[in-house]
Amino acid sequence: MSSISIAELAAALGAEALGDGDIRVSGAAEPGAAGLEHIALAMQPAFAADLARGRARAAILWPGADWQGLGLEAAIVAPRPRYVLAGVTRVFDRPPEIAPGIHPSAAIDPSAEIGEGAAIGPFVFIGPRVRIGPGARILSHVSIAEDAEIGRDALILNGTRIGARVRIGDRFVAQPGVAIGADGFSFVTPTPGHVEEARATGAVTAEEQDAYVRINSLGAVVIGDDVEVGANSCIDRGTVADTTIGDGTKIDNQVQIGHNVRVGRTCLICGQAGIGGSTVIGDRVVLAGRAALADHIRVGSNVVITGNTGVASHVGDNRIMAGYPAVRLDQHVEMYKALRRLPRVLARLEARLGGVQKGVSNPGTSD
């Protein structure tokens, strides 16, 4: 990208510039690797020592930092470093390259509607009656099935698959390999099978069961505005009602969201999390990596589910859950402390019992 002055960068970040605001930079780098063309990202005191190993003339620093004492000619002060980092990466971002217009190899059904300014890359398939919003960017080998709708300014990266009747809002981002609108994993047996027996009785007695029969997915997937879905994640369509994802929700790589699931607004779902069918999740929920939610449960709003946690029952609002099975975090910590103490408790118990047994086996002499 072309260069930007420190003063211009500070204005773009809504931050304060100190020193020579005319210094120009064309990228950002870690302090020890920064060159003359970079602004160094030293937003915490722990990174200050690395500035001497680099060549940056300017850096983004924490409030109260002695930028001149650090040998810099200019600085930008970051009161909330991670939030400023989001702005820095936005300024210096290198968006995927896609030529304007429609690539000659794209296969687009005549009934599809393509919005003004949309760019469609090579080997894209767009099915009947699809509607693509203005300014959308669709990269190579994407397929969009019949009757799907995608809002304005979408970015759909290579190899994404969007199924029939899926409806997606504005500013949607799909990382490579996303699959939205596949059939849900829903099967039934003519007579009660092992799973139903286990749920009802806690045991499995039958040695055989009937073959599984598919329950087809008649619903679709509805996704709100400003949603991002990470690479190789899957969102299944609903059995009858739609699977829904609320505005502003961000989904990491390799996440599985089952049929009929409803996810609220501004949720954060981290890598390898799995959500069973028909589960309902409130607003502002965080699912950390490899969190697993059973089917047909409800998770309230403002909930944090920690990594590797298995949730098998309903969760109320404003809770932090941990462990398997999931309990409140404070309970989980106490349980873990007790588990850590258990070997010492057992050792003392064994020592005491050993002393008692020794006393019994050697009662001593009597007159």
CATH architectural category of the largest domain: 3 Solenoid
Could you name the CATH homologous superfamily of the largest domain?
Hexapeptide repeat proteins
Estimate nothing, just give the exact number of structural domains: 3
Number of strands: 39
Which spans have pLDDT < 50 for at least 5 consecutive residues?
Answer: none
Largest sheet: 11 strands, mixed
Could you provide a short overview of the structure?
This protein is an alpha/beta fold. The chain is built from 4 helices and 39 strands.
Question: Care to describe what's here?
Answer:
With 367 residues, the chain is an alpha/beta fold. Helices cover 16% and strands 26% of the residues. The protein folds into three domains: 4-91, Udp-n-acetylmuramoylalanyl-d-glutamate--2,6- Diaminopimelate Ligase, Chain: A, domain 1, CATH 3.40.1390; 107-173, 3 Solenoid (UDP N-Acetylglucosamine Acyltransferase, domain 1); 178-325, Hexapeptide repeat proteins (UDP N-Acetylglucosamine Acyltransferase, domain 1, 3 Solenoid). The chain is built from four helices and 39 strands. The relative contact order is 0.06. The mean pLDDT is 94.
Descriptive key words:
single chain, 367 residues, alpha/beta, Udp-n-acetylmuramoylalanyl-d-glutamate--2,6- Diaminopimelate Ligase, Chain: A, domain 1, UDP N-Acetylglucosamine Acyltransferase, domain 1, 3 domains, 11-stranded mixed sheet, 10-stranded parallel sheet, 4 helices, 39 strands, 26% strand, flat
List the helices and strands and how they pair.
Layout: E1 4-5, H1 6-13, E2 16-19, E3 24-25, E4 27-29, E5 38-42, E6 58-61, E7 74-77, H2 81-91, E8 107-108, E9 113-114, E10 119-120, E11 125-126, E12 131-132, E13 137-138, E14 143-144, E15 149-150, E16 155-156, E17 161-162, E18 167-168, E19 173-174, E20 179-182, E21 187-188, H3 194-201, E22 213-214, E23 221-223, E24 228-229, E25 234-236, E26 243-245, E27 250-251, E28 256-257, E29 262-263, E30 268-269, E31 274-275, E32 280-281, E33 286-287, E34 292-293, E35 298-299, E36 304-305, E37 310-311, E38 320-322, E39 327-328, H4 329-361
Parallel strand pairs: 4-5, 5-6, 6-7, 8-11, 9-12, 10-13, 11-14, 12-15, 13-16, 14-17, 15-18, 16-19, 17-20, 18-23, 19-24, 20-25, 23-26, 24-27, 25-28, 26-29, 27-30, 28-31, 29-32, 30-33, 31-34, 32-35, 33-36, 34-37, 36-38
Antiparallel strand pairs: 1-3, 2-7, 21-22, 38-39
